[in-house]
Amino acid sequence: MKDSGDQATRPAAARRDGPAAEARIAELEAEVAALREALAQTGLSAERVAGLDADELACGRADRASDRGLAQSAAATAEARHRLEVAAGRADVAASQADNAALRRANAALTESRATLREREERLRLILDSAADYVIFTTDLDRRVTSWNAGAERVLGWTEKEVMGRPADIIFTPEDRSAGVPQREAATALAEGRAENERWHLRRDGTRFWASGQSMPLRDPAAGPDAPPLGLMAVMRDQTERRRAEERRALLTNELNHRVKNTLVVVQSLTLLGTRGASPDLSAFAAAFQRRILALARAHDLLTREDWTGAPLDGVVRAGLTPLVVDGERVGLSGCNAQDVFLPAGAALTLAMALHELATNALRHGALSVPSGHVEVVCLAAGSGEGEMARGAVEWVERGGPPVLGPPARRGFGLRLLERGLSMQTGMGADLRFEPEGLHCILRLPAVRGTP
């Protein structure tokens, strides 16, 4: 409590405004307490503050202001750095998000590509496995198996698991392996782009079958044509039945040819025996008849070599002339090398006989009956001439022999064959021109084709 003296000394206004003054005093005391608390937090006591002079207080205030400035500058720098780091982080996040989006798109495209590739591989596998009649397999460059289709399993007997990585030489016969056939076939395929495979092969059980196919280089289409091959691919088919049928046919053809030739020999023998000791005319007939049979036999041999599918024109011409003893220098065949003209079997036999008759007539009555005469034979393929030669023809020209006065009064076997027999048997025709310089004959051929 304040004493009465203090109360006596208070101004009259304070006494009048007592409550207001009390409130003001309380406010000031609260401010002083707050200042003391602030000083205590800064480590300064009130007594120390009271003992500082004005310069020290000013210097302290300046230091504190400088510290506050440095702190504010550092705070501003840190805030700017923080903002830059935040901006860089946001940029990194955006770039990462873009990269992630690109990766998701690439992954989707890769997934789709893989699905397409799997579908394509499956379709290719179905195609290969559906070709059950065809052996299809691939090897590396060392000829070791890298793929094996269902047809290979069915025809050869080995499963894909059994044969993978093994040399493909196991399907070749021992004699072919000893002769180096697998190596030569692979080298040919790599060097020339393909190698024919027509030979006997082995199955897993040791039985043999005739394979018809080819080998070729295995390449990656995406690598370009100049890229080295990855290996080899072989495609073949079991043609054993066809091969055996061909062998049987060849055997039968040879047997037939042998029997026909024997028949011709018997006819020759009967002719010779029947005319022995007969008149000169009959003996001459027998000799001529034998030569006709020989010409027919030679043409027959020519057709047999071609499996009776026909014969080349130049071979038929020579077959018709061979039985006769003719000086080769007096019969020119340089114009008859038309190896690309192939005659049907019937036409080949008839043409050989016709040429034989022309040569026989030339030896008896025509250009070859005198030393100065000669004959030129020219083979004209279809389309090489005009008019009657456009079908293909053989031209027979005699020169240097006795003068020809015209057609003979008597028609012998040869003339009748040329004038009527050709057209009756094969549709061929003959144009005989008895020119003063010598006989000129054009033998018109039927429709011909190229050599198979």
Report on this structure.
The chain has 14 helices and 13 strands. The protein has 452 residues and is an alpha+beta fold. The protein has three domains: 29-119; 131-238, Beta-Lactamase (2-Layer Sandwich); 244-450, Heat Shock Protein 90 (2-Layer Sandwich). It has a five-stranded antiparallel beta sheet with strand order 2-1-5-4-3, with helices on both faces. The protein has a five-stranded mixed beta sheet with strand order 7-9-10-12-11, with helices on one face. Strands 6-8-13 form a three-stranded antiparallel beta sheet. Helix 11 (280-305) runs antiparallel to helix 12 and helix 12 (313-321) runs parallel beside helix 13.
Q: Structural class per helix/strand content?
A: alpha+beta
Could you please say which CATH topology of the largest domain applies here? Answer: Heat Shock Protein 90
Number of separate helices: 14
Helix content: 55-70%
Number of domains: 3
In the predicted model, the low-confidence regions spanning at least 5 consecutive residues are 1-16, 384-390
Order of helices and strands: HHHHHEEHHHHEEEHHEHEEHEEHEEE
- Tell me the fraction of residues in β-strands, as a range: 15-25%
- Choose one word for the global shape: rod-shaped
Number of strand elements: 13
In short:
It is built from 14 helices and 13 strands. The protein is an alpha+beta fold. The protein folds into 3 domains: 29-119; 131-238, PAS domain (Beta-Lactamase, 2-Layer Sandwich), CATH 3.30.450; 244-450, Heat Shock Protein 90 (2-Layer Sandwich).
Q: Helices and strands in order, then pairings?
A:
Blueprint: H1 4-9, H2 12-16, H3 18-41, H4 46-51, H5 54-130, E1 134-139, E2 145-148, H6 150-156, H7 160-163, H8 174-178, H9 181-192, E3 195-202, E4 208-218, E5 231-238, H10 240-275, H11 280-305, E6 311-312, H12 313-321, E7 331-335, E8 341-343, H13 345-364, E9 374-380, E10 393-399, H14 413-426, E11 429-435, E12 438-444, E13 449-450
Parallel strand pairs: 7-9
Antiparallel strand pairs: 1-2, 1-5, 3-4, 4-5, 6-8, 8-13, 9-10, 10-12, 11-12
